[in-house]
Amino acid sequence: MKAWKIVLVSLACTTSIVVLFYLAGASQMARLSGTITKVRTLGVEPKAAVAIVDFRAINNSEVLFMSGERRVTVIGRHGIKHDGRISSAFDLSQLFKYFPALGAMTHEPYIKGIKLKPGQSIVGMLAARFEMSKTDLDMRREIILDLYDSDGSLTELKMATQPQ
After folding, report:
1. Which residues pair with 146 in a beta bridge?
2. Which pLDDT band holds residue 59 (cuts at 50, 70, 90)?
3. Are strands 121-130 and 65-75 parallel, antiparallel or unpaired?
């Protein structure tokens, strides 16, 4: 057998093995699927506002999901990305206490360390402060909620705003 044929067969076998290991590992990563169900905004200063994001998600993977980092990002009306600063669970409850116009706090705050078994679902909420006016926050193009597992895998939930 010629040397180039041996190299070609070895390369094909190696590629097949790598693909199989990748596919097997991908099913072992904890990931959620879900949707953002509601977004409420509150102006706290002339150039600062808070977005309160309600969401629903389910652990469709075969492994335990343990919540890690959380991020809320807004794509503004001009396409500029704005990162929010996540509020604590206590601050979130205080917002609802002092601003009754927000309505009822119907879901538990989504905090680090929440465990979701395979097939288990969660309904939660997060608040994030943005250094932009309430008007600009309300006129956003999209809001993105990034939920990380403690091992680093990412679930991204998005909600686009209808053009006005």
Report:
1. 71, 156
2. very high
3. unpaired
- Is there a contact between 50 and 130 (Cβ–Cβ < 8 Å)? yes
pTM confidence score: 0.79
In the numeric block, the tokens 């909620």 are attached to 145
DSSP-derived 3-state class of residue 150: coil
Q: How many CA atoms lie within 13 A of 164 on its CB side?
A: 6
The whole-angstrom distance between residue 27's C-alpha and the CA centroid of its chain comes to: 19
Q: Which residues contact 54 (CB under 8 A, 6 or more apart)?
A: 36, 37, 38, 39, 40, 106, 107, 123, 124, 125
The pLDDT value recorded for residue 16 is 65
Confidence of residue 135 (pLDDT cuts 50, 70, 90): very high
- Rg, Å, the chain Cα set: 21
CA distance 116 to 110: 12
Asked whether residue 42 carries a pLDDT value surpassing 50, the answer given is: yes
* Stated length of the chain: 164
